[in-house]
Amino acid sequence: MVAFAGCVFAAFTYDDFALFSKSPVELPARWFDCFRQTRPLTELTFWLNDALFGRSPMSWHVVGLLLHLIVVALVWDVLRKLIGDRAGLVAAAIFAVHPMMTEPVAYVFARGTLLAALFSLLAMRSWIAGRFWIATLWFTAAMLAKEECVALPLVLILLPVPRNWRAFSAMIFVALGIGLRTVFAAAAIPGSGSGAQSGISPLAYLESQGVSIWRYLRLFVAPWGFSIDPSLTRPSLWIAIVAWAALAGLCLVPFRGRFWFLIGLLLLAPSSSILPAADLAADRRMYLPMVAFCACAGILLEAVDRRVLAAIGMGLMAISIRESILWTNPEALWSEAKWLAPQAVRPRIQLARMLPPERGLEELKDMPENRPVSTERGRLLLTLGRPAEALSEFGRALALDPNDAKAISNRAVALAALGSRDAAITEFQRALEHDACLSDARENLSRLGVESAAANCR
Q1: Which long-range contacts (C-beta less than 8 Å, at least 24 apart) are formed by 433-442?
Q2: Which of 60, 312, 338, 405 has the fewest CB atoms within 10 Å, i.e. the most exposed one?
Q3: Whole-number mean pLDDT of the chain?
Q4: Which residues are paired to 194 by β-bridges?
Q5: CA-to-CA distance for 451 and 394, rounded, in angstroms?
Q6: Would the pLDDT of 203 be above 60?
Q7: 3-state secondary structure of 224
């Protein structure tokens, strides 16, 4: 608990704010709306958090920390039955304090990762105990929390314990049903950042994932250089081939714990193979696979002197404390992301949002022209009371994507600030023609005394 206690004092960061701008969090009286979402169990915990404790960041982060502590207890209970008490204890201790866990614990939006891991471990626990159909129910819950655990049935059938092929078949059916629903939903939701909305083809994503997996493995062994936004770029074809070939070669090397190393890669496969996401790497994707990688480490280290193990644990804890403290300061968090990836756009934009407007504009002045940068410059200029310059920036963003509803709406906001009411109304209405569910355009039209036609946006 000491390793990540600092996360409790963290602010909301990045996508956390999206939780309060969409259903069902905005509709606390309608809990059943949670079950219309892609990850209903995760959404339900968000709804409960909001209904019971409001929107103070601390209560949300306390839930994340408590979930991690429960997961740690389950890791110990499951692994000691599979790899022995001492190796299981070493593995659980590494899992408990490794800096790789900072992001899923501190990042509220990543709660689905914690829940999926928790339910997956309950499924493993039941499977090991021979309660196969209970395991199937726990796996279903895990999939309803987050679909990245979709490979779990393959893990269960590979474990050196009795098997039940009917329960396994039922799990495969659940995995296909919920998995395909998620894929279709991601393709249909603009800006989802995954599947057809990721902006990268499955083959190109696969090429990049060899490098991403090596990065994850390096961070596991040498835990330094974590970032909220790794901002990896697509590697050249030859680098991609070498990365995958080296990974395949490592899998063929016989060593103690290799079974669990392979299980870790299997658990990582759903997020690091052919199902594309806009972000080529995200440290939180390692949370569930870390159960297996820590099992591998536990087997390799079980004969090591306790004093050495204690030193390793203290070192990991010290880094985790440092990372947790970093998450309490959004400006420092994004400054480090910028330092680790100086050419990346998103860390610079997020850092600009953390700074006073004048400093934010200074941060973005040497950035290349693209839609997010121009949009952020426009927002900062509006904040500074310079709507004419903001209109120019929003115009640049719109020129780069003429059909983007948000870009049209932003331009309308600048027009309204300049007193061009009729032109602003026209632009807001045009934005709604492109996206009838754009709440900003609807609200701004209402402020201008114009009611827009109702739309079913759930």
Answers
A1: 434/403, 434/404, 434/405, 434/408, 435/190, 435/405, 435/406, 438/405, 438/406, 438/409, 439/21, 440/406, 440/409, 441/405, 441/408, 441/409, 441/412
A2: 312
A3: 89
A4: 277
A5: 24
A6: yes
A7: coil
pLDDT at position 68: 96
b/e 31-53 (16+ beta carbons within 10 angstroms → b): eebbeebbbbbbbbbbbebbeee
Say if residues 101 and 114 touch (Cβ distance below 8 Å): no
CB contact at 8 A, 39 and 112: yes
Cis omega (within 30 of 0) for bond into 330? no
| 341: alpha, beta or left? (left if phi > 0; alpha if psi -120 to 50) | beta
Whether the pLDDT of residue 384 is over 70: the answer is: yes
> What is the CA angle 333-196-442, rounded to 5?
70
DSSP 8-state secondary structure symbol assigned to residue 235: P
DSSP 277: B
**What's the pLDDT score for residue 24?**
46
Complete DSSP assignment for 189-203: STT--BGGGSSS-HH
Enumerate the β-bridge partners of residue 277: 194
Angle in degrees, CA 113, 334, 198, rounded to 5: 50
Give the amino acid at 31: W
Residue that has been written with the tokens 């007193």 in this structure:
419
Per DSSP, 39 falls in state S
| Helix 237-252 × helix 258-268 angle, to 10° | 140
Q: Which long-range contacts (CB under 8 A, 24 or more apart) does 253-260 make?
A: 255/300, 256/299, 256/300, 257/295, 257/296, 257/297, 257/298, 257/299, 257/300, 258/296, 260/83, 260/292, 260/293, 260/295, 260/296, 260/299
- The pTM for the full model equals 0.91
CB atoms under 10 Å from CB of 15, counted, come to: 12
